[in-house]
Amino acid sequence: MELNATIDREEAKKLQPRLEQGIRLQRQGELGKAAQIYQEILNRIPDHPDALHLLGTIMYKCSNYAIAASMIKKAINIAPKVPQYHNSMGKVLVKLGQHDQSIKYYENALDIDPDYIDAQDNLLLLMRWSNKPEGIVERFKKYADSNNNNPLAYLSLAIACQRQGRFDEAVLNFEKSISHDQNCFQAYIGYTSCKKITEEDKNLIYRMMKLANSDFLSDSNRSKLLFSIGKAYDDIGDFDTAFINYDKANKIRRTTFDGSFNRADSSLYFARLKSAFTKEIIDRANGAGNDSIRPVFITGLSRTGKTLIEQVLAKHGKVFGAGELSYIQDITKTLPSHLQTSRSYPRCISRINNDVLHKLADKYLGLIDNIPPEYTRVIDSMGANFLHIGLINMMFRKAKIIHCYRNALDTCLLLYFTDFDTYKFHRYAFDLSDIGFYYQQYNDLMEHWRNILPNKFLEISYEDHMAKQTSMLKCLIDYCGLDWDLNCSKFCNTEQLIMNSGFWQVRQEIYQPSIDKWKNYEKYLQPLKDALQI
Questions:
Q1: How confident is the model at residue 130 (pLDDT cuts 50, 70, 90)?
Q2: Rounded to an integer, what distance in angstroms lies between the CA atom of residue 251 and that of residue 259?
Q3: Contact (CB, 8 A) for 406 and 309
């Protein structure tokens, strides 16, 4: 935190433990309690920039964007050299529809800290939404050219190239980053995610192993590198060594992750979803919600081909792939307040009414209004929305919902092999038995949706899509109510930015689909098979 001369530094020092307590509560989702602490600090130090910023981020989470903007702007005026403040302001301005101003704040954050990955990602995504992809790589090239001995400059450029599908350039710049810093673990991770590793990369794998076994990395970063080492060995066909490293990575995650997977809590949540969303509740909402056909929801567990389907559809001239939007997840947190009840979601669904459904739907449509109107379909590929297919159907009775799935063993194994950027929806993914347990609950819930929402969503098997690409593609286009577009069959050349872990796989699986991958690792999968009861 920067403190200006008008702030009582001794008082701020005394309040630091309270500030840290607020931060812990905020991270745990206790937003109300955290907000009380930040307000308590501001009552004593009205110009405390961290308290202003953090309270602003809570206002942002609660969709009070104007208040959030006012608080964060004040924090920036007090402490203008804190990149996190500018990044948060950029996020708020996106919600307020002020995209040009938002870009400026993200750029301010990167001017202060050019290696600030979150601001990079937000800028990349916003420029994509603003239909300005041509400026993304160029911005980072300019930075790299002016910092040609800085490994992080090359790393930033490589990430920008990677996410725009310019993989040869990405690999080149990851290599430059490594050549300037042998310990730049992010560059090794990026390199392995951009290409199929071959025997010629053995020296690079050796350096990755040496770094992973050193004391240089934190446990969190060590696990990230181990996931990439696992991928490298998988690429060259050394499956035993691959599994050993994937297993090490997951064991580290299990010991360092704050908040392990709780089977009882998970079972209760799934049970409540099935209990709350009944055929009677769905029928009662029939005719409510919004008639818009613009949103298209692609749901399902991770690694089931969702990104692949999104990219196929996004090549259509009237379809925009917006990526994984969090709005439906956010609704589930705020729905009790909309319904003026203390009952949490999904139990509060019994109180749902037409006015609230209209309000929620209109707010969602407002979120995607800034996407150019020539795109008559906007894809939301948040996979965890499979949990909320009932709610989505009530909000948008004509919306197209696509559920992606694949062979259970392949799905579960690939979940275990994935280094998720966020743990929020993947707490189960660090243990094979937990993965199998969660898969069973997911499978039961999907059967529930089939029973109460017959013919209300399209299901796409990864294996069928790979075997019958043309017919499945035409089925998808037809389901979305669109005319055929030849560009959809050329999707591997897409320049659309991909903001998740699938940027390399999405362009490669069409040629080398990951079908029956589990057979390479069968001797390790008994805990998973037991959980799946197969």
A1: low
A2: 14
A3: no
